[in-house]
Amino acid sequence: MNYKPSIERYDNMHYRKCGNSGLKLPALSLGLWHNFGHVNNFENSKNLIFTAFDHGITHFDLANNYGPPPGSAEENFGRILTNELSSLRDELLISTKAGYTMWQGPYGDWGSKKYLISSLDQSLKRMQLDYVDIFYHHRFDPETPLEETMAALDLIVRQGKALYIGLSNYNAEQTIRAIEILEKLGTPCLINQPKYSMFERAPENQLLDVLDAQSVGCVPFSPLAQGLLTDKYLNGIPADSRVATSGVFLNAQSITEDKLKKIRLLNDLALERGQKLAHMALAWLYRDPRITSILIGSSKPEQITDSLKALNNFSFDESELTKINDILNENQ
């Protein structure tokens, strides 16, 4: 073990209590959706983990299908954890999920008890762990009875394979139903993980109110709208951007002139606040006390340290919030 964490790692991070629990999450959490698979540089993946932890980011978020190939992000994280971070396990908050396609056949997808139990067993082996801190159902299953899916999550906690359970990609109505079932089972829902950013505001339509009323935490993913809410696209689509190199989750057709206009206006406001656009976009989310933590992704260690600057100012006056809403609502 060569890695020695910074002794100042907890000095500047903000932590918020997660719902009605004793658990606290850092303002920023590191998502391992991209840049941790077997196709990526392993030394860089290690440096991303180390940089995050050195700055108080204790929460590392995975899923069974993260890679590519699927499962490889968990395998690589397991190697890093075992070889470099094993003595620090109790300082880490590790989460994973199941709900999207992971293996062939009728038992490798969605939300059956068969799939969720099997998937978590595989995830624990890949990460060389006895348990995860949070296990999420990754998406609502319209065909499996919700009672079965929630019973599987309850069983996972009772088996000691996860300390807490959560939901991801569940809307307000689905979340209410799930919470009610879990309460009857005796395993509360800790947290919900929705897609939420300035450009994706669906959680504001009931979901955030539901989570607040039910004392459930919220950790948004894609807070920068796959990079749109940065200064990367101010002058068009750069050759090394995700749009140009992948186009799977964000493509050139989605970057309209109207959207570019909004990005530029938001950037101007961020500069008035003394921030970069990405910093303002993260701060705009974290200003809301209902937001427990924000999931960020990174391909370079310096991107993590840069994102932390959002925490230097996450207060907004009413005129700034009005300007942001006016920009976002224009031509809708």
List the helices and strands and how they pair.
Layout: E1 15-17, E2 24-26, E3 28-31, H1 42-54, E4 59-61, H2 72-85, E5 93-98, H3 113-127, E6 132-137, H4 146-158, E7 162-168, H5 172-185, E8 189-193, H6 207-213, E9 217-218, H7 242-245, H8 257-272, H9 277-286, E10 294-296, H10 301-307, H11 318-329
Parallel strand pairs: 3-4, 3-10, 4-5, 5-6, 6-7, 7-8, 8-9
Antiparallel strand pairs: 1-2
Per the CATH scheme, the topology name is: TIM Barrel
> Any low-confidence stretches, pLDDT <50, length ≥5?
none
The dominant shape is globular
Euclidean distance between termini CA atoms: 54 Å
Total number of helices: 11
- Number of domain units: 1
Write the element-wise H/E pattern from the N-terminal end onward. EEEHEHEHEHEHEHEHHHEHH
| Helix content bin | 25-40%
Calculate the mean pLDDT score and round it. Answer: 95
**How much of the residues is beta strand, in percent?**
5-15%
Determine the oligomeric state from the structure: single chain
Please outline the major beta sheet.
8 strands, parallel
Query: Helix/strand-derived class?
Result: alpha/beta
Indicate the CATH class: Alpha Beta
Across the major sheet, the strand order is 9-8-7-6-5-4-3-10
Global Rg: 19 Å
Describe the structure.
- The structure is a single chain.
- The protein is of the alpha/beta class and 332 residues long.
- The protein has 11 helices and 10 strands.
- It has helices spanning 42-54, 72-85, 113-127, 146-158, 172-185, 207-213, 242-245, 257-272, 277-286, 301-307, 318-329; strands at residues 15-17, 24-26, 28-31, 59-61, 93-98, 132-137, 162-168, 189-193, 217-218, 294-296.
- Strands 9-8-7-6-5-4-3-10 form an 8-stranded parallel β-sheet.
- The chain starts with 14 loop residues before the first strand and ends with a helix.
- The mean pLDDT is 95.
